[in-house]
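for ur thesis appendix - ITA2B protein. copy paste whatever u need, i formatted it the way the template wanted (i think)
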Amino acid sequence: QGQEKLSCNPKKENGTHVVLCELGNPMKAGARITVDMELSVSGLEDMGDAVTFHLQLRSKNSPSPSNASVTVTVPVEAEAEMELRGNSLPAITVLPTSWHRVEGSKRLEDHGIKVEHVYELHNKGPGTVSGVTLSLTVPHLLGDHVLLYLLELGTEGGMNCSHHPALNPAQV
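the 3d part is after this line
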């Protein structure tokens, strides 16, 4: 009829974590109860894609007609919100109409105006992330014409980076 908070005690039993909750002492014969439990579990990074709980109702009465048990499997889902920020330096670039690329030149200015694109990937949480892959596609050709001459690619913060073979083809 009424609602009561349970007093529960965690302990280790046979190498597993056990939480014991006292439901009633003494409990009247034929009593029916409903228990809603909210569990907070930490350290799930290496648990796989699910956590299994074994729930058992034990009676101290002797002999007990049944010690009913049930297994509940709860899926584990990691949650983290990623944010990608980008910036170009300078923000706007205009080539004069009279400018033409100098074929075969090794000078950077003969290939256009240098524009640096900076991308930052941020984890906004709440969970931590690992093994993140960011694929960035940059249009470097427009038909048969060079749209952007890709000079170099760099990273910071312990990231690994692989790049397209079209990076700096004229060895500028």
